[in-house]
């Protein structure tokens, strides 16, 4: 695994660049990511390019031995460009323009902007595509950051109508698939379909799901334009994009299919603070991050990247080096965490960990975001940890792939469906996947996170936490595996257009599960059914069928059903319930279960085994037994 | 009392209709409500009507012996209609259009849409008005659902100005009545009056009250157009509308005056979850509904319907049969609740309970809303309960009218006033009425809920929980009754245009109360005055006058005053305070008081007495002693 | 000190005016504030003035011996004026117009409205400027009330561009100062700078700070137009404006520089309820107000007014006399509070306390706001308290100036910066100042609140709670004083354009502090470091330098550093931590420290010493020892 850093030469005087490059190399870094926000410096006026500074920067970095990952600057089109086509701006769900003044101020469906993005990509790739120092490309930056995938502009509406026409062929097919007869929502042509925002009450969930799919496809299409240009003009370089944490605005399986390497930006403390964790968790892990945040995304994005056929290639393109500026509260990491997070990435198979950023910039929006260096050029606390881990990597560079234990099946449309129709607060497919992942990791197991169409070979335990739409052959593939299987609520509960299947949920999984879901209900916090050390919370389904009750509450409510190798979790998969089910299934699978303490996690690779002590910031590495 | 069901033949293949009709009849249902969302199927293109399917549906239902309640489909105008006059769309208070894509996408003040609504009503009534199977009509559906009574469109603004001109005659009269001299808000003509939204800080409360009255009047006017057409074209059929729970967007007394039967849609679990109940109540009654929710609305709407002179005719046009889809959490009812809720309606004098809906529809917005049948056509849990209660109704069909015990006086403008000017959080006239109702019901008493101008004869206890505007003769009518009277805070505190009366509150009730309110204050949660088993919370008034202090706090604060038969509750009527006052007044009235356990309620009819055990889902019925 | 009252003759029939005037005088009042909302009565039609009524009102008040403070009515332009130039309306940050129907419906940047405001000011001043009864003027009313300083209109945008051009000279200078290279935000001309609202994610903090400065300047400019007219047409009269509580929308130092007397409107109970106090404080002080609310503002505004050179002249132009109408909950003050608040103003050097209002108006927005008289003309509870304190003032009229103990340094841009970039919830410079003030007052000390450029002579203790931008000479002035100094977090952490200084925080204060801040982090509630009776909460900085650790947590975290006479509080200044630091510094300063009970406060003037018992509504006055 390599180490790298994100660097913005345009922020600093030119005389600092050579020294910066030298210090990077001395620190043990071999990669540097640059350029992704520099459009206004590359093309200060329409059509007038200023390459000098970037030539210099690239040369200096290259001369120091660093491989350069160059970003296309399309996340930050300059003001003159926006002024030339003001309707390139996205509209939010309330109909308000999302204008210039920060970043990501564009609508993915705007043809004119897509052409401009292609133009600047071509210009940059023309100039540097075959530069020896350039080893990779990053397209744009964090697609979807600041909730920018969905746009409610005229451009989006028109593109949505074309997308629908292509998907459904006829308006009658759409009306039928969506059930538009309900509430007289039937359209007579695709031109009668509006965007699903600003309706009186919620729009048809099928309408929303189509819009989510469309919006995701627009991102993939936008990205592909750049990928095609870069492949043509910069042969042999890896093309990447940097995904985010707990973010599902587009389908990362689809995006990754066009990339060589899927990157992601890892901010464990910020994510802990801003996402669904309980207040207790936010306090307990305030300085370390919840111990599964980084690992979950490593495994998720490795799975997304695996869509191209091989073992997925992935990297950490940004890594938190200290306090950030964007969470509600922004504490400093415990000493040791920057090293620990780096080794967690190593243990999961990253190709690169790139710290964000080299030196804290004293101005503008991210002035409170730490770097490896302080604004005064002195070392920030992370610097020494990187120095240490860079040395350690010499010994641990090849831990080998993770030993196959358990797999989780997750899809992006699953999360879209539970967002569109939660039916009860907190019922999110992504969160079900995270809590299932946590339960498996607490048992000391390795976990792969797979797309629904990924091969299932070699796993002794497969968990499908919440997968409303299942591929036709998933049931067969699960049946023909020898694995223990856990299927969670809502799985198989919808067809591709958000309709309940004819034979009731779990639809195509019914034979496997040995039952059908005849009633679903949701429970407010505090309303639960008591079990033996676990509870039924949040969601509860009643089943009819041949499966046997395995976990039964004091009041007779059945929390978990069993049909041979297959368990069905009829309540929300969280807390002690999913821990209990996972524990039983793992034991039945003959997996090496070992309930770890709260802050400890393990990763078993072929050659090395890592033990992470999150609450102490410590890591121990040993040869795998 | 009859049983019925809501049915959407347009959702199902035609071959299912005869069998559905037969099963309904066999189940013991004799009414079926249809058609209210079917405009796009009745008139798929402008001016082209497709009656075939509806002819068939009506005939099949009629042939099975069911009486049909036909809905006018005006809550869901089709897309082609909206596209022909886009300004029929309402604007919300933020100025955003509330467009097509769900339902209720129209502004009540739009002349063009009112004409279109008349046209489709005439078309449907022309075709089926004299059909033998059609026994009743429902106009539109749930006026005001999704907060749709108020619109801030140009059509609404223009209509509001005309309405004001009619009400006030001259702009000087309006300026004077509203006190527009305050903050230089004086207008020189009605054209200078804007809608009260989007002001810098709150608009004049008199302005808001006028707008609330206007908005209510627009609903009544819109409905009357349909009523007039239906009366002319479908003689002898009952005309109804379905009101909602805890909803006060328009004056139901006014609407009911134009109807034969006032219907309402009863969703006890959804209402519990979504309204002002405490978290403790939401947990305790999660599966049964708070035991006064359904009964309160039965008594409220019977009172609204009584405005036409006779004992009010009312029905439950929708009844929750299982989990719904629209609350924050959607649990399943306890076994027995569907039967219990049905019998509660019987005990209160409903003509009909119609379950919503026959079969769960697997698509679109309400796919998670239970029916009597599951989407796969099998029985849902409610089915057997309906079967049982249908049989029981043979024996209990005629419980007789409720014995007269206590009355609550409530008006819709009272609630508008407390919404416009709460002065302290949670001070709602509707909620004061509900908590007073609960206190009376806990004593085992029957309660009627009356309009301020309704006759007061026969009640031994009359409660006026919070009635800012009182009719001129109410004081006299209360004085000349022999009843015990409880008057609550803010009563008589405003004239018809939201001004404090010259002689201070309680205005025309001052002699009755024996005092005047010289100070009002509101108290944050936790700030209270201790009494003997009760507390002063939320609201407190100081009185001057001849009345005697009856309930005095430890610190000397007077919570309740007494002037002969009349008590004045000077604090917010809730909790143990209103329970204590009601208990004393009921005892003084010689009523059969009997404090019931938390989940038990009683309804004493002339022939039968019902005891409801909400927390157990049970009902016992006995001959009235 | 004089007493006065706010009076609205236009609300009452003319025959009441003489009697009202007489009662005011008899009560002991000598000032009456009128006219500030009466534009629609002064100029009922464009260009047609109706002076008769106001002539009468002024004459009657003057005849009763009252000195009149006349308000310019520019906070409430009439509807006809708005209709003539609809674009005078401000737009809110969401782009919505903030229209007619309440008050303050104008954009400070609209040239046309500023001319109209000048025109009406000239008209009123022409007529009454030399009237013997008129002793003072109030410009407009509560600039910024209802969040009205910032407008996002076209007028504001254009004016902002001009303001920027003047401030920065060249667009390159602006780009450099703001760091616009970050995210390609560079502009090519001032016409490319937009307002900072409706951006995709947060705009550049430098952009926001400039907009806050600009918006403040627009208020000052608007006010100055009126001041210039009044000075010319009404020589010798005091010109005032009434500021508000906990309000920082514009720079009061700048505004006060143009005024003779800075007034403010004191509503201790409303402010307690609506601002950052904890729920515990809101309960404990619900009926008295937190004991530092009024005093803090007295001292703050006296400091603002001192900018003109002399000891600052200031007044309470509105004083709460009972429950108000605008807080979330509106309790009545304890008996004695109206007198206590009056004496607190006396003790702090007010020239005038003017109660708001004479008689409760039974109509419109403030009908629930108490007055000295009830709507029925009888005395409200405050009346007798005013009567008492008016008599007492005969004896205590001349308490003398406050003895100099401690000073707090506060600036409005400091608060703007912490609002723009809190970095952690609750980190507000204003609140840091308030909590520091509270800590000093709890020690029985007098506190002056100073602008950063105010003279520091005579204080034995100077606290700089949170001052990101420091004047160049502040460090020198602090160093050359003999005072104990406490400097709080973020002080010196930014240059004038929101950039971190080259040498790191505390920038120019580094030598004084004896260290530099190398890391800042924020802590969620519950995440703290334990000290000995105090905790580190909310914010924490790490220092490097020569200073010595003075307060060290159990875990080694340093909460407070000391460098000779200078202490640096490296955590958020609140609770027991700031109390401890203040206690030590005050002791070192030889100040008479004396930790007072929770509800007691003291003010030591040259001749009289006041002890206030907030929780009992009592005051004792004695000769200063
Ligand atoms: Zn981001
Ligand atoms: Zn509804
Ligand atoms: Zn105000």
From TrEMBL, chains A, B, C:
<comment type="similarity">
    <text>Belongs to the glycosyl hydrolase 42 family.</text>
</comment>
<feature type="active site" description="Proton donor">
    <location>
        <position position="142"/>
    </location>
</feature>
<dbReference type="Pfam" id="PF02449">
    <property type="entry name" value="Glyco_hydro_42"/>
</dbReference>
<dbReference type="InterPro" id="IPR013738">
    <property type="entry name" value="Beta_galactosidase_Trimer"/>
</dbReference>
<dbReference type="GO" id="GO:0009341">
    <property type="term" value="C:beta-galactosidase complex"/>
</dbReference>
<feature type="domain" description="Glycoside hydrolase family 42 N-terminal">
    <location>
        <begin position="6"/>
        <end position="395"/>
    </location>
</feature>
<protein>
    <recommendedName>
        <fullName>Beta-galactosidase</fullName>
        <ecNumber>3.2.1.23</ecNumber>
    </recommendedName>
</protein>
<dbReference type="InterPro" id="IPR003476">
    <property type="entry name" value="Glyco_hydro_42"/>
</dbReference>
<dbReference type="Pfam" id="PF08532">
    <property type="entry name" value="Glyco_hydro_42M"/>
</dbReference>
<feature type="binding site">
    <location>
        <position position="103"/>
    </location>
    <ligand>
        <name>substrate</name>
    </ligand>
</feature>
<dbReference type="GO" id="GO:0004565">
    <property type="term" value="F:beta-galactosidase activity"/>
</dbReference>
<keyword id="KW-0378">Hydrolase</keyword>
<feature type="binding site">
    <location>
        <position position="141"/>
    </location>
    <ligand>
        <name>substrate</name>
    </ligand>
</feature>
<dbReference type="GO" id="GO:0005975">
    <property type="term" value="P:carbohydrate metabolic process"/>
</dbReference>
<dbReference type="InterPro" id="IPR017853">
    <property type="entry name" value="GH"/>
</dbReference>
<feature type="domain" description="Beta-galactosidase trimerisation">
    <location>
        <begin position="406"/>
        <end position="591"/>
    </location>
</feature>
<dbReference type="GO" id="GO:0046872">
    <property type="term" value="F:metal ion binding"/>
</dbReference>
<feature type="binding site">
    <location>
        <position position="107"/>
    </location>
    <ligand>
        <name>Zn(2+)</name>
    </ligand>
</feature>
<feature type="active site" description="Nucleophile">
    <location>
        <position position="318"/>
    </location>
</feature>
<keyword id="KW-0862">Zinc</keyword>
<keyword id="KW-0326">Glycosidase</keyword>
<dbReference type="InterPro" id="IPR029062">
    <property type="entry name" value="Class_I_gatase-like"/>
</dbReference>
<keyword id="KW-0479">Metal-binding</keyword>
<feature type="binding site">
    <location>
        <position position="326"/>
    </location>
    <ligand>
        <name>substrate</name>
    </ligand>
</feature>
<dbReference type="InterPro" id="IPR013529">
    <property type="entry name" value="Glyco_hydro_42_N"/>
</dbReference>
